[in-house]
Design a protein that fits this description.
With 322 residues, this protein is of the alpha/beta class. The protein has an eight-stranded parallel beta barrel, surrounded by seven helices. Helix 11 crosses helix 12. The protein starts with 12 loop residues before the first strand and ends in a 9-residue tail after the last helix. The structure holds 3-hydroxy-3-methylglutaryl-coenzyme A (HMG) and magnesium ion (MG). The site of 3-hydroxy-3-methylglutaryl-coenzyme A has 26 residues, from helix 4, helix 5 and strand 5. 3-hydroxy-3-methylglutaryl-coenzyme A (HMG) binds next to helix 4, helix 5 and strand 5.
Length: 322
Amino acid sequence: MNRSQDVRDDRVSLIEMGPRDGLQNEASPLALIQRLELIQRLADSGLQRIEVGAFVSAKKVPQMADSAALFQALPRKGSTRYGALVPNLQGLQAAIAARADEIGLFTACSDGFTRANIGISVEESLVRFAPLVQEARSLGIKVRGYLSTVIACPFDGPTRPKRVAAMAEQLLDLGCHEISLGDTIGVGTPGTVAPMLDAVLHEIPAGRLAVHFHDTYGQGVANLLPALERGIRTIDCSVAGLGGCPYAPGASGNVASEEVVYLLHGLGMTTGVDLDKLAATGQWVSEQLGRPNGSRVGQALHANAERLRARLCQPLAHPQES
Ligand code: HMG
Ligand code: MG
């Protein structure tokens, strides 16, 4: 990393998306008890911010039904902050009742995606969000602003970097404490991500930004580098690379949390996350879902652990009797 930066800059905050962005697109929903175990395992691996669920229409996203019961069942020990995704007043009220530590409001740079996702235009979403942010803040609940389609929209095509900067500024002006820049369909490369970040950073300091890369084309880890080089220290990621958005056809999950931790530790940066515990959780949730582990790091660590186990289980060789 840029060694001219303060050493405290080497600490990166990870926002775990697996229980929400991850599970919202899984064909067979996990039972409440499995979702709860997933969140507890993630917290136990050292993750300090976990998006637990979404207060959205259960008709639209059945995987997120029971998010209220999930919040109620959380043990809430330690310093982990539990967040919820919220689309409207009904969702905010549910999140407040559930004692969510933070909420995420979500809009996009493009009307096509916003209409498919929440049934209104971008402009209408900003009008809707303004009083929600005020209400949440008055109760001491932090509000994260998700900005989707920062590279391209599945309906409207490529997004101009200046459009992303203007939208991010508007979300900040509404009172969001942090803006998560989402490459919703995962088409970005460092070649398109860097100019987008430069445009946003022209208006907004790095400390107020997070990056949210989906890994559809395998560029998630590569795209983190221009963000880190520019001082962004908040990264959204999903254990075992779970998920995608039901309203972004073909998009795969967020960059896997295991890949992000492996990269950051390799760069000498700190995350507070125990990679072995995280990888074991990724393997566990993949088995619960009956699908292959979507993290390459997770697969490698699991294979190593299996090899070690096989070696330890071998019967001791007895010396040949002469
Ligand atoms: P609508 O149909 O326009 O809303 O949906 P409505 O106000 O007309 O209500 C219709 C029904 O929905 C009513 O129920 C409401 O009670 C119910 P009915 O009378 O028919 O039984 N309803 C709700 N139920 C629970 N919680 C609520 C809620 N609001 C209304 N908050 C709405 C509008 C936004 C609710 C709907 O379109 C919706 O839920 N969309 C789902 C959006 C979603 O979850 N998308 C995936 C997450 S976004 C994402 O993944 C991107 C991100 O990761 C960043 C990135 O990758 O770029 C964040
Ligand atoms: Mg997403």
